[in-house]
Amino acid sequence: EFMNKKHFKRVVMVIFVLVLAFSFAGCGDKINPNNYVTVEKYEELRAADWGDMSFKEMEKFLDVQGIVDEEGTADWGEAYTVVDFPGPDTDSYLHVLFGTDDDGKESASSMSPTGKLAEN
Prior knowledge:
Order of helices and strands: HHHEHEEE
Number of helices: 4
Structural class: alpha+beta
Number of strands: 4
Strand order of the largest sheet: 1-2-3-4
Distance between the termini: 73 Å
Shape: elongated
Largest sheet: 4 strands, antiparallel
Radius of gyration: 22 Å
């Protein structure tokens, strides 16, 4: 017999462990689209050096997906990106303007909270 039950179980177990390991490794940098900026996380951001953060760095810091405001970005022009980070309710979000300097480095230029995020 090519593979007895004992060997078969080992092979299946190894495959299972490998699949499990790769499934965890695959989603390390993904942000849950349901995450939102909490009042506490906004306070942490305000205390941090947010003016040096790029769009991606701020997303990672907040663990919240930013939504590019296409209209606002077009109004500001080529070197700018306007991003809204959803807050705890439909009236709350963090409105951030990112600018790119002459060297191509992106950083936050301004930050405006609305709703519950602005109440503090």
